[in-house]
Amino acid sequence: MSNKFGARALLASILFLTAALSFIAAGCSSTGGGVGGPLSRVIGRALAPENDGNQDKLVPLPDATIVLVEFNEDGSVKRTQVGMTDADGNFVVNVNAQPVIAVVINGETNDGEVEVSGLYNPDLETIEKDLDPATSVACIAGITAVVDGSITDEQLNESRVQNLEDASVDYIAANPDFDFYNSDDVDAAVAAVRAATNDGANPAAPGAFT
Fold first, then answer.
1. End-to-end CA distance of the chain
2. What is the pLDDT of residues 115-157, one digit of tens each?
């Protein structure tokens, strides 16, 4: 593996362009968000590949840091540490209703430090989704598109997130040598997914990555 930090370093570099850091110790769950309105409970499990990027073997990330990523009114990014995963990699994050948020999990496997992430549209009382390499590629693609001005956070709706995630699954399946720990591989995946979906505006065409 040429880069052990991979997606963690890539996503961190994107978010820190405009990040306002605010760390709050809050156990395994928290109440985040500053938008107001009803709360959504985001529930999931953080899973990462082990053994040199083998995508077929995913392991949980126990006792890993949970970071909530939100967009401020001016489009800048706010990161807040909101707790830790449990012994099985499970997490719960409570957020105010808003267009889109990201949950970022910083943990470690036998292959080293790793970060998985995912986008959520918190408009329901409970939203469940596990985080893995595909949701992470989609998350980086979506956040990158917002940060570089290609789309707004309001445009990063449920349909766009789903298109990005479906394309990320297809890309990884079509590239068996994809290494989630290699930042160049993640960069290539993000670029391909963004291009194939027009930043999530449409599903990727069949065979887009073959």
1. 24
2. 999 999 998 899 999 999 999 999 999 999 999 999 999 999 9
Given a contact cutoff of 8 angstroms between Cβ atoms, the answer to whether 75 and 16 are in contact is no
Residue whose pair of structure tokens reads 């012994």 in the numeric block: 87
- What would the pLDDT profile of 17-50 be if each residue is shown by its tens digit? 333 323 322 334 444 444 456 889 999 999 999 8
Nearest to 91 by CA among 110, 123, 67: 67
In order of their start, the domains of the chain are 6-197 (2.60.40.10)
Which residue is it, tokens 């990320």? Answer: 168
Angle in degrees, 0-180, between the axes of helices 158-174 and 183-197, rounded to the nearest 10: 130
**pLDDT in the model for residue 131:** 98
pTM of the predicted protein model: 0.85
The widest CA-to-CA distance across the chain, in whole angstroms, is: 45
Distance (Å, whole) CA 182 – CA 144: 18
* Cα-Cα-Cα-Cα dihedral sign, residues 178, 2, 16, 35: positive
Angle at the Cα of 60 (from 172 to 185), degrees rounded to 5? 30
Alpha-carbon span 20 to 2, nearest angstrom = 30
Write out the DSSP string of 57-113: EEEE-TTPEEEEEEE-TTS-EEEEEEEE--TTSEEEEEEE--S-EEEEEEEEETTEE
Paired strand residues for 117: 104
- DSSP, collapsed to helix, strand or coil, labels residue 27 as coil
